[in-house]
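Example for tutorial group B:
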């Protein structure tokens, strides 16, 4: 029994030892911790970083695409979401050559989970920022979506955290927040008053080990997962904010 316990402890120590340090990983991409309080009020629109995980490896790249999706085809059913900013948007469905509007709103992302289709919409304009999450129970049978909850912040990016097979929350990067909708349809605010706000527009989000990583201009934000915290680290290129 003692021998088995020793073996388990030894193997566990090897796994922990092999887990790469996030600072070291970011340094491989020429990114180092940058004091958030020194960012100031300047806006940054270039040199975007995109994050993703492929075969267990973290990839940070300068060329990438948004993880959001506003079009989805299911058999002969096609969903199309539009987002025209302050001029509005909508979700429509095309079936048998007939188009029908299902809901109004600036559609940010269409997320299929099982048979369900989650619709995340919202808008940040002037002093207003908000949105909502709705669901179609069976995406093969289009219907008016059921609203699950309002969002206190406009959504920018949406990500399904599949780390656990038995609990897969929807993670939403807001205009100034990080939010979570759990499988029980309960909304939690994981982080509020995000430093990116209007200054650094998020490009992508992924989870790597114990952090949610958000791609931003000139760098990557790391927020502890799965519950999030106020302890955010911004890894930036040396030339950032010069």
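The residue assignment follows.
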């Amino acid at each position: 029994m003692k021998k088995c316990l020793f073996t388990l402890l030894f193997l566990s120590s090897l796994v922990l030892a092999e887990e790469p340090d996030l600072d070291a990983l970011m340094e491989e991409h020429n990114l180092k911790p940058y004091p958030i309080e020194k960012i100031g009020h300047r806006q940054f629109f270039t040199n975007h970083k995109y994050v993703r995980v492929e075969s267990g490896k973290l990839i940070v790249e300068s060329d990438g695409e948004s993880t959001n999706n506003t079009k989805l085809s299911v058999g002969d059913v096609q969903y199309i979401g539009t987002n025209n900013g302050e001029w509005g948007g909508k979700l429509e469905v095309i079936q048998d050559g007939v188009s029908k509007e299902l809901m109004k709103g600036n559609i940010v992302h269409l997320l299929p989970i099982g048979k369900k289709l989650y619709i995340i919409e919202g808008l940040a304009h002037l002093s207003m920022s908000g949105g909502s999450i709705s669901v179609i129970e069976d995406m093969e049978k289009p219907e008016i979506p059921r609203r699950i909850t309002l969002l206190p912040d406009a959504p920018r990016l949406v990500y399904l955290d599949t780390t656990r097979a038995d609990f897969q929350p929807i993670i939403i990067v807001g205009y100034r927040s990080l939010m979570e909708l759990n499988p029980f349809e309960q909304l939690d605010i994981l982080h509020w008053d995000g430093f990116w706000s209007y200054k650094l527009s998020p490009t992508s989000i992924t989870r790597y080990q114990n952090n949610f990583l958000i791609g931003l201009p000139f760098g990557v934000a790391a927020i502890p997962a799965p519950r999030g915290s106020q302890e955010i680290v911004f890894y930036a290129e040396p030339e950032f904010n010069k």
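The domain at 21-236 is CATH 2.120.10 (Neuraminidase). Compare this with the pattern of hydrophobic and polar residues in the output above.
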